[in-house]
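Reopening this ticket.

The earlier resolution said the output was attached, but the attachment link was broken on my side. Pasting everything inline this time so it's all in one place.
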Amino acid sequence: MKLLFLACLSPKTGNLTTAERIRSHIESAGHSCELRDAAEFQSPAEVAKLVSQNPPFDGALAIHLFRAGRLLLDIQVPFGVIFGGTDINEDVKVEQKLVVMEQVLQKARFAVAFTNKLKEAAELFLLSQSSKIYVQPQGIQTDVAEKFCWTEFLRSSGVSTERVDQLHVFLLVCGLRRVKDPLYLVEVFSEWHNENPQNVLVIIGPKMDPVLTAEVEAVVKRTAGVFLAQERSQQELHAAMKRCFALVNSSISEGMSAAILEAMDLGIPVVARDIPGNAAVVQHEVTGVLYSSPQEFVHQSRRLLSDHELRERVVRNGKLYVEEHHSLKQERETYQRLVDTLH
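Inline output:
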């Protein structure tokens, strides 16, 4: 089968990683799968033209009901959709988008949600047949770069590297865009750093929103204890995660954060903002810690630093959770089975 796969493919984002992983599952079943960036297309008509070219496509797949899914509305072949997270958490609040997403879901042969919560939200907001929505958590695979120098990584990010081993590096992994709220913790973290200079916050991720990126760069420049790292390859990022004290998430909305799951897989504690997408994978004091204000972030982080039993427990449980619920094999089988229904 020849499939077209549309997704938002900004470099070095979770979306791109997810799309490439799902494409490899489909291709390992013997299908051909052409992955294209939804941003390349202006209208559903353009995609319909592409699908019917010679030799034509037999089916299609899209990640994100609105951004990519709407482009499939004119095609004459069956398709499936995968919820992105912001489509169900944010875009449903906009009437025009909601109408379009309902049409997409009605036409789709199947839909995939990463969590039960996301499936429930979709059923609540969209006029959907719930039998169409399958829950398949993201499969997680980490790969650590062998030749990675932690001291050099910190130095290039502007962190003083005199006593590297004594630092507690909190790593905020996120694309620089509003929904990730990268500046949420900056002020309170800087105060904490001034109290204890060993605690530093390093923000790392692709510069997706130019206006916000300029804002983050300006704030970081004048803020003690907070640094902005150059984005790295997936393997180098995993190597940096493995060396940090804790992974931080400060998003306003998440579908399912791959960075959180990767940190758990790498044996690193997670300090995540208490939002539905995060609470679906981080059970407070079991697989990580949750916070709902900047002040509470500092409180929970202090606990992780002082309570070794808590730290060891969330690390152990986090790793077990990923092994149990985010198996690559299970994910591969689900997508191969669903794609077969597009025949």
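Reporter confirms the inline version is readable. The chain has a mean pLDDT of 94. The two ends are 8 Å apart (CA to CA).
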